[in-house]
Design goal:
With about 220 residues, the protein is α+β, with helices and mostly antiparallel strands. It contains six helices and ten strands, in the order H-H-H-E-E-E-E-H-E-E-E-H-E-E-H-E. It has helices at about 5, 15-30, 40-45, 100-110, 155-160, 190-195; strands at about 60-65, 75, 80-85, 90, 120-125, 130-135, 145, 165-180, 180-185, 210-215. The strands form three sheets. Strands 7-6-10-8-9 form a five-stranded mixed beta sheet.
């Protein structure tokens, strides 16, 4: 049985929404039985992701216009994904890299400033859902965590405060998109977090979901 087969119609949803729905279903299933999913294969354990950070609502940005300090400003990407600057009220920011946003600002400012040179620095790092890693279940502080280059499972567990006393870490799973398909792998979080077994560590990928099972005894 695969969760994908039991949830028709998920392919029509945004990728991250479908993954979250499947993760919630897995939480229900895991509460009743042990995991029978395969371990993370070697090809997925040490995968390296070369990616550019994508701005999302809640990200803070600092905008520098060289030679025009009065136009330099800062702000936060609004929930609608847009940003207001000194000269432009509604500039689309969400879904773009800082470099793309800087070029867009240059084009917008060129109506008022001769050959503007703009740089954008990002803070806050809320990001877009597709680049978030979500931790659900028996983590001390379950939450979504922005993906960082070279992030490992151990880094992620430190970020959520480790396991609760009720966690069944070795019955936990990773939900990941592999070659466009949702794939579920078994994790050994007890071995990693409580026993310090570094062989249970893996590299994380944007969009991963970690579901930490609850122990029933």
């Amino acid at each position: 049985m695969t969760v994908q087969a039991a949830t028709p119609g998920l392919s029509s949803l945004p990728r991250y929404v479908g993954l979250i729905i499947c993760a919630l279903m897995l939480l229900l299933v895991m509460g009743c039985s042990g995991t029978s999913y395969p371990p993370v294969p070697e090809s997925q354990r040490n995968v390296e992701v070369d990616y550019d950070y994508i701005l999302g609502p809640g990200d803070s940005v600092s905008i520098y216009v060289w030679g025009n300090e009065e136009l330099s400003t800062g702000g936060t990407v609004r929930p609608d994904g847009k940003l207001t600057t000194h000269l432009v009220e509604d500039l689309q920011a969400s879904g773009k890299t800082s470099t793309q946003l800087a070029r867009d600002i240059e084009r917008a400012y060129s109506e008022y400033v001769r050959e503007p040179v703009v740089s954008v620095m990002v803070g806050g790092f809320s990001g877009v859902p597709e680049q978030m890693i979500r931790v659900m279940g028996e983590a001390t502080n379950p939450k979504r965590v922005p993906f960082k280059k070279h992030m490992t499972l151990l880094d992620l567990m430190i970020g959520v405060g480790g396991l609760t006393p009720f966690a069944d870490g070795n019955n936990s799973v990773l939900v990941r998109m592999v070659d466009g398909k949702q794939t579920t792998y078994a994790l050994r979080l007890d071995d990693l977090v409580r026993e310090g077994d570094i062989t249970a560590n893996i590299n994380m990928m944007p969009g991963d979901i970690v579901i930490i099972a609850e122990s029933w005894f």
